[in-house]
Amino acid sequence: MSELIFLKLGGSLITDKHTEAMLRPELVRRIVEEIAAARQAKPELRILLGHGSGSFGHVPAKKYGTRQGVHTAEQWRGFVEVWRYASALNQAIMGALAAVADQPAVAFAPASSVLAAGGRIQHWNLQPLRAALEAGILPVVYGDVVFDTELGGTILSTEDLFAHLAAELRPARILLAGSDAGVYTRYPDGDVIARITPASYAKMAALPGASAATDVTGGMASKVESMLGIVQALPACEVSVFSGVEDGNIRKALLGEKLGTVITSDE
User: Fold this and answer.
1) Is the pLDDT of residue 216 over 90?
2) Which of 14-18, 97-101, 133-137, 185-189 has the lowest mean pLDDT?
3) With 50 as the cut, is the pLDDT of residue 37 above it?
4) Was domain 4-263 assigned CATH 3.40.1160.10?
5) Where are the domains of the chain?
6) CA-to-CA dists, residue 28 to 42, 94, 147, 221, 248, angstroms
7) Could you give the CA distance from residue 157 to residue 102 in angstroms, rounded to a whole number?
8) pLDDT band with cut points at 50, 70 and 90 for residue 215
9) pLDDT at 213 over 60
10) Which band of pLDDT confidence, cut at 50, 70 and 90, is reported for residue 211?
């Protein structure tokens, strides 16, 4: 089978994270056009698409503390509210994939298919997702609420989902497209780090721990650490953290160009 690529569209990229439930429709339109262009240029390309929740899910999630656990009646109402917002954003992305780029895509909602334990995925039947990839369909996952045997309920980020999926599907590359040019030495006015490895990361003093807007699933440091875990488990896998704002970047990255910060298992 041809190489498999995981592509994440960050919440800061596809939404205005400073305004609740605000999609960036023109940017989403261009992004899905670039995905379609890459698939047309390289028909054998297999892509698993993920997207963050941005200003849709993170705001109610912070209000109710959903990621930390769900037990009370009020917290369960918050759980449902986060689910509703996350689903609404996913529907907007799925609509753009169909209407703008005519891409055959199917969403795999974590809330209805993933069971967690202590914030970690315990069970996820991936046979339907594998079948979608084999059929040439674009599977789409996204940050969402899930039921949890220890916490009652919680939130799994797209990076959480990718970490589990990577172990099962073994992608060649993981592309994290956000609003920033890469991982900075100091946010927001530092330099972009060209390459990060487990050894070089251990020597770094700090990375930005939170984004400029509400993000209940951690900031850049959390994302980098999650990706380092993946490349250590899968040394052949390479991760790129780059800006999806710049015209053409997502198409270029899908077709193999190295952009932004590259995360690998060795130097």
Assistant:
1) no
2) 185-189
3) yes
4) yes
5) 4-263
6) 21, 10, 29, 25, 13
7) 27
8) low
9) no
10) very low
Pairwise CA distance, residues 94 & 45, whole Å: 19
Give Cα 214 to chain centroid, integer Å: 16
Sheet containing 152-156: which strands, arranged edge to edge?
A: 120-124, 114-117, 144-148, 152-156
Listing DSSP states for the chain in one string gives ---EEEEEE-HHHHB-TTSTT-B-HHHHHHHHHHHHHHHHHSTT-EEEEEE--HHHHHHHHHHHTGGG---SHHHHHHHHHHHHHHHHHHHHHHHHHHHTT---EEE--HHHHEEEETTEEEEE--HHHHHHHHTT-EEEEE-EEEEETTTEEEEE-HHHHHHHHHHHH--SEEEEEESSSS-BSSTTTSPBPSEE-HHHHHH-S----S-SS--TT--HHHHHHHHHHHHHH-TT-EEEEEESSSTTHHHHHHTT---SEEE-S--
